[in-house]
Design brief:
Structural class: mainly alpha
GO biological process, one term: DNA transposition
Strand content: under 5%
InterPro entries: Transposase_8, Trp_repressor/repl_initiator, WH-like_DNA-bd_sf
Distance between the termini: 70 Å
Pfam families: HTH_Tnp_1
Oligomer: single chain
Number of helices: 5
Shape: elongated
Order of helices and strands: HHHHH
GO molecular function, one term: transposase activity
Organism: Hymenobacter rubripertinctus
Length: about 100
């Protein structure tokens, strides 16, 4: 009986290296598949994914990050609730 084979996981750097090697087309995909011990369809998927996502490398990173939330109203609400809590502790009878 064969031992159970675990699924291989590849880093983003490794995928980028393989996809870039496939994009340069200096070697056929079959040779790249043998060299990296991958299947040809897997390399083709990574190559396609790199082509589709390549434009995002050059986008402005500042525009893609959302603006931080305004904390002043939150701090004001916390202060108001603390004051109400203290007032209720003073005025309500304790059980």
């Amino acid at each position: 009986m064969n031992p159970k084979r675990t699924r291989r996981r590849f880093t983003a750097e490794f995928k980028a290296e393989v996809a870039l090697a496939a994009l340069t087309e200096r070697q056929p995909l079959a040779e790249l598949a043998a060299r990296y011990q991958l299947s040809v369809p897997q390399i083709s998927r990574w190559k396609l994914h790199l082509r589709q996502q390549a434009a995002q490398v050059f986008t402005d990173a500042v525009a893609s990050t959302p603006a931080p939330p305004d904390l002043e109203p939150l701090y004001a609400a916390i202060g108001r609730l603390e004051m109400e809590n203290q007032l209720l502790k003073k005025t309500l009878p304790t059980w």
